């Protein structure tokens, strides 16, 4: 399954539609276990990370994932923390301008990676308060897995 690369406007619309009413410890566990279930159903060799601020609230490493996935998680998450947008949106913005994040951001690529898979956790009235990140699949698939889980999770929260 290789999703079509979304446009900048489609990625912005995704982020706007996925603002949550709240997000706490129990929510992180629920979202994390949902991601684990979705990944296991696909036999996806991913690592999953959920943070609120600087605190890691959830982490899972599924069969086939490696420590390298944790390093990618950190690099993608830092992009979300810096830009308050998904790592895929940030990378797509640079590509839409005919360049790459690595060439034009002036940020160390060993510290930041604008590749799909890290998504901001935004809460109504508070803005971006954290991130949810998946690493282990091609970037479009990492991003799509996170979005699918957030869509299901948001639907469960809002009934």
UniProtKB/TrEMBL annotation:
Pfam families: HbpS-like. InterPro entries: PduO/GlcC-like, PduO/GlcC-like_sf, YBR137W-like. It comes from the Bacteria. SUPFAM superfamilies: GlcG-like (SSF143744). Belongs to the UPF0303 family. PANTHER family: PTHR28255, UPF0303 PROTEIN YBR137W. This is UPF0303 protein HEB29_002029.
């Amino acid at each position: 399954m290789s999703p079509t690369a979304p446009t900048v406007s489609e990625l912005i619309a995704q982020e706007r539609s996925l603002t949550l009413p709240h997000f706490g410890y129990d929510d992180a566990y629920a979202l994390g276990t949902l991601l684990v279930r979705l990944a296991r159903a696909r036999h996806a060799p991913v690592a999953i990370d959920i943070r609120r601020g600087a605190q890691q609230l959830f982490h899972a490493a599924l069969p086939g994932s490696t420590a390298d996935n944790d390093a990618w998680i950190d690099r993608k998450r830092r992009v979300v923390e810096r830009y308050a947008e998904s790592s895929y949106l940030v990378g797509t913005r640079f590509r839409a301008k005919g360049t790459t994040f690595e060439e034009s951001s002036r940020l160390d690529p060993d510290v930041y990676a604008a590749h799909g898979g890290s998504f901001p956790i935004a809460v109504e009235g508070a803005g971006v308060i954290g991130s949810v990140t998946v690493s282990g699949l091609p970037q479009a698939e990492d991003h799509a897995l996170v979005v699918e889980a957030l869509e299901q999770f948001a639907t469960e929260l809002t009934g």
